[in-house]
Every structure is written in C-alpha cells, then in structure tokens.
Specification:
Cofactor: [2Fe-2S] cluster
Helix content: 25-40%
Enzyme class: translocase
Catalytic activity: a quinol + 2 Fe(III)-[cytochrome c](out) = a quinone + 2 Fe(II)-[cytochrome c](out) + 2 H(+)(out)
Number of strands: 9
Distance between the termini: 69 Å
Number of domains: 2
CATH superfamily of the largest domain: Rieske [2Fe-2S] iron-sulphur domain
CATH topology of the largest domain: Rieske Iron-sulfur Protein
Strand content: 15-25%
Largest sheet: 3 strands, antiparallel
CATH class of the largest domain: Mainly Beta
Shape: elongated
Oligomer: single chain
Subunit structure: The main subunits of complex b-c1 are: cytochrome b, cytochrome c1 and the Rieske protein.
GO molecular function: 2 iron, 2 sulfur cluster binding; metal ion binding; oxidoreductase activity; quinol-cytochrome-c reductase activity
Radius of gyration: 27 Å
Number of helices: 4
Length: 199
Amino acid sequence: MTDQADQSRRNFLYVAAGGLGAVAAAGTVVPFIGSMLPAADTLAAAKTEFDVSTVEAGQLVTIQWQGKPVFVVHRTAELLAQVDGHDDSLKDANSEAIAEVQAEWMDTAEKRKYRAIKPEYLIVVASCTHLGCIPLFKPSAGRKDWGDSVPADWPGGWHCPCHGSYYDISARVINGSPAPHNLHVMPYTYTSDTTVVIG
C-alpha cells in the first residue's frame, strides 16, 4: 500500500511539474511572439488615406506611402486618350509582369490598360524600375528640348532623367528604355467615391 501511495504521489508531482513547466514556457513564448508583431504606429504607417478629389484635372501630386513617394495623377479626357494607339511600343502593354500581380484589383483588360480602378486617377510608386530615380511628369508628346533620345512616337507620360527611361500616361514602360517594368502599382481600395486607402 505504501509503494502504491508513493507511486501515486510521484505521478502527481510529475504531472504538476510538467503542467507548471508548460505554463512557464507559454508565459515566456507569448510575450516573445508578441514583441515580433508590428506596433500600432507601424501598422498605421503601412496604410495611407488620400482624397483624390483634391487633385485638379491634369495635375500630379506626390504623397507618401510606407516611406516611398507615390504619384497621384488626375487624368483628363485628353490624357486618357493618349493611352491608346501605341501598344506595340510598350514592353508590357497589358500589365502582366510580376510587378503588377501585387494589385489584385487589376482583374479586367480596362483596369490593366489604365492601371487604375477609376481611369481618371492613376496611383503608382514614384520610382523608376531601373535604378529607383524619380521620373519627371511630361504629359505632352516629346519635345526637342528634352533631348535627342526622345522616341519619335512617344505619346507623353514620364521620363526618367537618370538613365533615359520613358513611360506612357499609364506609367507603362516604352521599348528601348533601360527600365525593365512599368512603374509599380500598389494595392489600394476606395472607401468612398473620392477617398483611397493605399496599402
């Protein structure tokens, strides 16, 4: 009887010690994992809210998203007309490259062409996909004072002054440019008719 009591006592102590050890381990691991999660201010910085109605027709503004400059352009009917007619001069006319896959909303041919949820508002990362310079907004067709490297059929859009990459008004890269991809489109949604949340 005494041996059975001792065995029961030992079993109880083993189970109790194991349970306490598991609680102690959980008490150590949970705060450690919690410390690796992003802080509230970091999560807030991961998203940018912007009212596109503040951008006048034909105007470009630059905002910040995750520390990166982002172009927001209010394209007029005339600028939207420049999107068509030069697909053969583009590296990725249908926005099918891997850089475009990030934007899940690009689910129709029209959205891939205009690279926007609403065609009149283009929102792209303001960084040339060659080496990261900020391209200059030149919405009208090429002029001689921009240099001899301007493609004759370039309809206007962006020109990177660092190494001469050209993009159209939908920020799609022109053939012959050193940039390998279109300007990047980031995920965004409209929370109202004019308010977008980027990220």
